[in-house]
């Protein structure tokens, strides 16, 4: 069991169903979802980068690949799924200690390939709320920033993507620590929330945690402009550069 829990060994459908029966789990939908997850042997594009990038980056790509929806709040950076290559390179290039090109380039490649979940059929529904700070901070130069704003505008035209902005002049917004990625699972109980911190990315899946972040997302959403006003807002920012 410890090897299965640590990811060192696989688990069969029979084992999952026997364990569910042993623990008196009578939720058939949950058991079926767990079986599907346990027996999935998908080897996605991220496996090509195993041994090159930190495992947590590959885990993020895999979680997104299996998502039924994605909801994100960002405060200081443009969402990774909407970043241009130049913007992503500027982000990773600021790391300390400085990354050599042999590590920097694969990180940018990984970030660009992650976009497939929202750009390629069947595209996952994606909602993101971006604070104005993330749009104004010049991670790169003016040219990079302008191109990044135009990329967001282009992506926001997709039917599956919803972008909202929280302007600086929004009253009563104290959500500076609300950054998150909420990844929908096959059932709400199997959702995951990703939170970045200086010590790394945390994967949260306890029911109490999920409930907290669902409520937090909706709270931030109420402070944001609607999609149409958001597009006008970003368009005006791009004109200022």
Structural class: alpha/beta
Rg of Cα set: 19 Å
The average pLDDT value, as a whole number, equals 94
Q: Please state the overall shape, judged from the principal axes of the Cα atoms.
A: globular
Order of helices and strands: HHHHEHHHEHHEEEEHH
Largest sheet, if any? 6 strands, mixed
Unreliable stretches (pLDDT < 50, length at least 5) are none
How many strand units? 6
N-to-C span: 57 Å
Helix fraction bin = 40-55%
Give me the side-by-side strand order of the main sheet: 3-2-1-4-5-6
SS field, number of helical segments: 11
Q: How large a portion of the residues is in β-strands, by DSSP E?
A: 5-15%
Provide keyphrases for this structure:
47% helix; 13% strand
Question: What can you see in these coordinates?
Answer:
- This protein has 241 residues and is of the alpha/beta class.
- It has eleven helices and six strands.
- A six-stranded mixed beta sheet has the order 3-2-1-4-5-6, with helices on both faces.
- Helix 9 runs antiparallel to helix 11.
- The chain starts with a helix and ends with a helix.
- Residues 59-235 form the DUF5753 domain.
- InterPro entries: DUF5753.
- This is DUF5753 domain-containing protein.
Quick overview of this protein structure:
Residues 59-235 form the DUF5753 domain. With 241 residues, the chain is α/β, with parallel strands linked by helices. It contains 11 helices and 6 strands.
